[in-house]
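Suppose a classmate hands you a notebook page containing two proteins, each written out with its sequence and a corresponding row of structure tokens. How would you begin to make sense of it? This section walks through that situation. The first entry is reproduced here exactly as it would appear on such a page.
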Amino acid sequence: MRALTSIEHLTTDELLYLVKRARQLKAGSPPQVKDGLVAANLFFEPSTRTKMSFEMAERKLGLTVLPFEAGFSSATKGESLYDTVKTLEAIGVDVLVIRHPENNYYEPIIDQVKPVIINGGDGTGNHPTQSLLDLMTMLEEFETLEGKTVTIVGDLAHSRVARSNVHVLSKLGAQIQFVSPPEWQAEFQVLFSLDEAIETSDVIMLLRVQHERHDGTQSFTKEQYHEEYGLTEARMAAMKDNAIVLHPAPFNRGVEIADAVVEGDKSRIFEQMKNGVYMRMAILEFLLKEEAE
């Protein structure tokens, strides 16, 4: 396995191994990556958490991180992604983390280049490393997802996080339900009442309302969305005693989530961010070890 482009490519055993290894790294286990490797993070869409946690993970593993800024690269002159990747391959980069606005951007290049490719998010398609850190956070809390109900709430139509998480959660025995306005339900079968869903949920996974991908035709305001589909303080209080709140962030405060909920006692949002570093360390270690073999 020379790449991680979709969560579907991982077996259940591999999913559980990566969670176990990430938890070991979080507990202080020394990383196992050979010296002298070089990474570059090619982000053609804005990112804080994914890009910076990958860079932190790479540095913790002892990799040299080659700076790359899409806005100052030859991509602005029309260079193709393939040619950018081949350039970095030629100068000695071993692993590339790529975020790109096009779905499945990796398909034309994946078998044509030598560096390990990790998908940092493609369009509205996949976000495998986010799903893995979400899984890690849930298993830290519950140890098993068998019999647990995970409710994914919000902008399903534009969410690569939702699509990736469906595969992970299904493989590990969770019950999944969806809540969304009809405009954003896409291919999912949804409930339209968050209040109803909360009663049975062990995990409420909120999605960012992706304003930048909308055409302005939605039939509600931000305030109306918050009232109908947002996780308010009252809704958090109605959750099960041991239920938790997740959000891939960045979050729109006062839209999909109330200010007080972000750091409320049921929120694991900042723990997700912390876990992102250790999960991405585990992924890099796993792929680079296989590459070495």
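The notebook's second entry, a different protein, reads as follows.
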Amino acid sequence: MRFPLSRLAVAGVTALALFATAVSATASATGAHDDAPKPTIVLVHGAWADSSSWDPVIERLRHDGYPVRAIADPLQGLTSDTAYVTSYLSTIDGPKVLVGHSYGGAVITNAATAVAGVKSLVYIAGFIPAKGETVGELAAKSVPPLPLISTEVPGGTEVVIDPAQFRAAFAGDLDPSAAADLATTQRPANTRAVTDASVTEGFRTIPSWALVTRQDHAISPDVQRFMTTRAHARTTEVDASHAVMLSRPDAVTGLIEQAAR
């Protein structure tokens, strides 16, 4: 009797070991290990905003265990801004997900291939220029044009959105007080941001996601769809203004985490 029981025990242990190996292999293949390091989410704001515009999204990403960086985009021109962001990215080890809002989309498009470890791109109501194209050429497709005020400064011309029309143009789904605060604190952008030509198409080799904002009066939804279709981005649409990261942070966070996974 002892011999058959020993054989049975050995067979049982072997079967359990094989089962455990299979489960482990499946988990590895599907990325189901909870202890796997998450990529760093790098947020790049656009014109007439700053890093604080990402605050609701940052809070949610951190809650879900993602390391987050929010870059202060200089807004001095696509060429110089790309160089600045590329230098910043080179200090971040490991896998990275780049997220660009509005003009920030053009910056991540050009910076993505210059550093190692960028696993995906996420465009939040973002510009996605092709090689040789300018943000200004894409912006001109939106009707009506933005109500901008220009100021001559050392080093060129800077523009802001007319504060009296800021909410309608940029943040129509925020309450008037919040929109007024954004209008007051908006950062001006140098016109080189829209006249410098794009030189790299990061979306050609890096998987891309995009959020199209249907109530956007800064970049019209049709222009956004044109760009996301051309980039073959996995696209989601949401009823929101251009300030979607403030009005719909759950939708923005959800798309970023899709790209991160």
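A careful reader of the second entry would note: The longest strand covers residues 118-124.
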